[in-house]
What does this fold into?
Amino acid sequence: MRHVNAARARSRAILTAAVMRYEGKIYRPPSEADAFILQATIGCSWNHCTYCDMYREKTFRVRELAEILDDIDEAAREVGDHVEKVFVADGDALVMPLDHWLPILERARSRFPNLRRVSAYAMARNVLDKTDDELRALREAGLSLLYVGPESGDDVTLKRIAKGDDAASHVEAARKARAAGLSMSVITLLGIGMDRSEEHARATAELITKMDPPYFAALTVTVVPGTPLATLERKGRFAVPSVDGLLRELRTIVDLARPTDAVFRTNHASNYLPIGGRLPRDREAILATIDRALAGQIPLRPERSRGL
Ligand code: SF4
It folds into this structure.
């Protein structure tokens, strides 16, 4: 999962950030730009993915419940009527036990009268570690959307990048979340398969078909200094594929993935070709756009404009 820093967020999130006691950098998905970001956990309970530097400087912990509830109260005083979305940070906040989650969701509902969505990052294991009843209780209390980043459906790649969960675990997590009424947004990562580019793309398409999320996104791998991936790159054991190679991966994923009805986006700043639409409805149009980009007929996002 690699998303934008809240410091770059616009509108109400900025206002809220100004009054919150955030610890370290805060990340959230692009679609949560207007959310109140509630930092309930610090860091990521896994923190091993080779490409990720988001929480490397943080030691994982769940914040004291009283502090979290205070943050909700404080945000409510400042911007309460304007909060329609709450994004619960940091890295895999679903890992929190229910004795934290339920009071948080209850307090958020009572303090933000216009609240319509609560979301969080989650690893597959966070979903699998919760019982069906616990997931249903979370949904009933107001949690509605999980952002899950398998990055690849290729188990060899998943092992190489120390993702911590294999493809089958992600499929089971998606099934379990759906059964509880939780929506899922799935994040994949172009270029992370390196010499397994074709296998990575095909297996990722298959994973999307099996997870069948209502939302999925493709980001592009960026080698961040200080990460294990940067060390591998320095030693010549990892290289980001060419831009054409990345576009071909994207093409394979769009061509082969068979979600029932998914909103698909590559609008993240890391991507060379920002596109969006619904799959399967817009498949042919998206493929035609990718083909035009491969033929050099569409300008790509310049390197200097790409970001994490
Ligand atoms: S699960 Fe991996 S990618 Fe996501 S925050 Fe943790 S270390 Fe980073």
